[in-house]
Amino acid sequence: MGLDTQELFFHKNFLYYNPLVLITIMVWLCGVNLWVFSQTGVDYASIFYLGPDHLSHKEIWKIVLYLSLLLAMEFLRHSPLYMF
Asked: Of 32, 78, 80, 82, which one has the fewest beta carbons inside 10 Å?
């Protein structure tokens, strides 16, 4: 891969995937926050005025796991276009 192709590859991947990676990390950390709240016994549902149908940390992690897998598969699908 030439230098121009490498720069194009990293620039395009940064532009395409940076927002999605940031959103994925944000949702992972939201699940971590809910897990810490539940482990320490903080009643976060009443603090944040959540209804009885809010998602638990396990459900959030399951959703974001699928999002992370989808993002990784999409990145790997897009990457070979600039390898040669």
From this structure: 80
